[in-house]
Amino acid sequence: MFGVLQGFALILGIIGAGYLTARFRIVEGDQRRVLNSVAFYVATPALLFSVLSVSDPSVLLSPVILVTSTSAVIVASVYVIASRLWFRRDLASTTLGATTAGYVNSNNLGLPVAIYILGDAAYVAPLLLVQLVVFTPVILAVLEATRHPGDTGKGSLVRGALLAFGRAASNPIIIASLAGFLVALIGLPIPEIVSAPIDMLGGAAIPMVLLSFGISLRGQRALAPGSGRAATFTASGIKVLLMPAVAWSIASLLGLGTHEVFVATIIAALPTAQNVYNYAATYRRAETMVRDTVFLTTFASLPVIALIALLLGE
């Protein structure tokens, strides 16, 4: 549990540094978007290529990935239904809300959880791969389509989808993820002269996103009236309560072993990934709602993870 606390302290410390950066006017207003842009177009692609290029593609066949991926799709669908019934939003905002409900922080929080609670860092690799290679292209395709609505408003839905996926295919995050996955798949060695600068750039991705997140908190009270609190509370509740319950149910129904059920449930309880905020800030859609959901789930997930570890831990 100490490792999990370290992971949370790391995240909150950098967010706090970002807030102080804004508080002392080192960075003001929309200047923070420079951090988001550099993270989105440069540092994050480098990080994803570094991670995926040395991963084991066979982990995609793990039964845990089936459970966690299915759980993510189910809870995202629940959010969409709830949104349609109680707080209708445009397509981009609904997509980002559904993403916050099912897209887990499998990197900077998932890794310490996997190491110190699950006993093996490889447990988060499958979901990391699926989120990057499968979920992210779909999310970015939708956001790209809403960025240029004129392209998808004419002709058939199929044509619109092709246009959106075509734009998403040129996205540096998608390109880097697929390139890293292919390198791992064929076992292509990368010389250090190439990998070293990529690794260094990748190391800046998470700090930049967290700093920008902290800067965005300055001058804006979290969960303020009119900020879409219904959507935020719904997404947060689905993420930290419903998703682990769904994962536990599916894993149990599939007859997985006690340890695999435990692993799937813990992974599903991880908070919303900060990457979702980076997408929202880059495309300038539902930023406040996504920011508040990331903030809320980061705090709320800790007692939930502790409770799961107490009830299901071996």
Automatic annotation (TrEMBL):
Q: Which GO terms describe its cellular component?
A: membrane
Where, subcellularly, is it found? Answer: Membrane
| Membrane-traversing stretches | 6-22, 34-54, 60-82, 94-117, 123-143, 164-188, 200-218, 230-255, 261-281, 293-312
Could you list this entry's UniProt keywords, alphabetically sorted: Cell membrane, Membrane, Transmembrane, Transmembrane helix, Transport
Pfam families given in the database record = Mem_trans
| Lineage: superkingdom | Bacteria
Topology in the lipid bilayer: Multi-pass membrane protein
Per the record, the major location class is: membrane
Provide the GO biological process annotations: transmembrane transport
> What is the protein name stated in its UniProt record?
AEC family transporter
What organism is recorded for this protein? Leucobacter insecticola
